[in-house]
Amino acid sequence: MTIKVSVLTILGSQQSLVASAKAGIGAEAALQQTRLPPDFEIDPSFAAVPLGSGGRDTRLSQLQPDQSAQFAVRGFIEAEDPSQIPVSLGGAPLFADPAIAPFITCGGTPPLGNAADVQAKLGVRWLAERGLDGSEVAVAIMDTGINLQHLRGKLGRMPRFDAANSWQPPGNTSAPGHHPVDHGTMCAYDVLIAAPNATLLDYPILSSTAPGGSISGATLAMAFQGLAQLITVWAVAFAAGGASRYKGLVINNSWGIFHPSWDFPAGHPGRYIDNPNHPFNGLVSVMARAGGDIVFAAGNCGRECPDGRCQTRTSEAIMGANASADVLTLAGCDIQDARVGYSSQGPSIAGMFPQKPDLTCYTHFLGSEAFGAGTPDSGTSAACPVAAGCIAALRTRLSPAHVPPANLFAQLRASARHVRGNQGWNGDYGHGILDPEAAAQIAGLS
User: Fold this and answer.
1) 131 and 170: one domain?
2) Does 70 share its domain with 113?
3) Helix (H) or strand (E) holding 264
4) Cα 160 to Cα 135: distance, rounded to the nearest angstrom
5) Of 27, 61, 96, which residue sits at a domain end?
6) Number of folded domains that form the chain
7) Annotation says 183 is catalytic
8) Whole-model pTM?
9) Which of 43, 97, 143, 274 is the catalytic position?
């Protein structure tokens, strides 16, 4: 009995792929004209993604559809079992399109402290007094979608929101900002703790109902396409000299893979979790070089309290783009600076950058109540957007043109607060607890 496997492949430029990439979602007819490898069934709902030359040194100009030499498409193949997935079809390489999931917490312990306590720990008042509040900085929430009315009820005001530069993936009928209250709304709330004037962008990559995905319908392909859209609206304009209206773009990713069994088998060259050359990891590098501050959650496979989906595996648990050298990866601690037991520990999976997490930030506090009254904002899912908000606050006065993401992340690591005398990097806290006030002082923003 064969199984149907969702995959990504890379094809050379064809007019149908150029047309699909230009049209975006809704270009099904164009893709049907594409010359395909044998035994490959294309997913017409997935618009072709231009990859330029396909290497990690791809220039932004090469990502224009007319200039791109290669394109990624999504589709399906049949295999007897996962171990029989071929490396390529007709010379076209096959890459994994694994299921992805939000990093909600395990366990049911009550919240410790609230959003005001987090603000006090981060020095948000000090930041605000110096104009570091996220004004004219965009934060893309790559998640389940945002519910603005819930945020308005919790904040007492409507947050800044950019519907025009948000994204609606295939199969999703909710308008930007009007998704069910869920994990993405929690993340949006947590960004605004340190950056109340940041502008939210809605990228509901985890709410897709595209065919062939996981039970929730979310696979890496949706994150891939969402990131490609962000590059279109930001990075190309940024490289062209400032067509963007924003001072900076922060990209929050509170999701990942819980276990290697979600991916291609070990040793397959198209695997995602330990492969810097997977097309998604390559696109992450392009976005980072273009000035986007990409933030990922470490995950919830910590030794003391792993999520059940970790299947008891707690070593090398930071995987895929969450372990990329081009992103900032966040572990979680409570407001008393104690690491939460579900926070994944480093070093990350072999093949990726080993010293992950980079930093630790606050989680498990009373905040958005997106999951019901009295429930905590929890998991490294909450630590990640709290940190993203801190970065957005700093970007109010730190241009990525003058302080690129790699430099800013280095400053954040250097200024982190050490825990209980720990110096340097360790697998529990990374380089320490994020201290945006200290980072601002190092950057001369005091």
Assistant:
1) yes
2) no
3) none
4) 9
5) 96
6) 2
7) yes
8) 0.95
9) 143
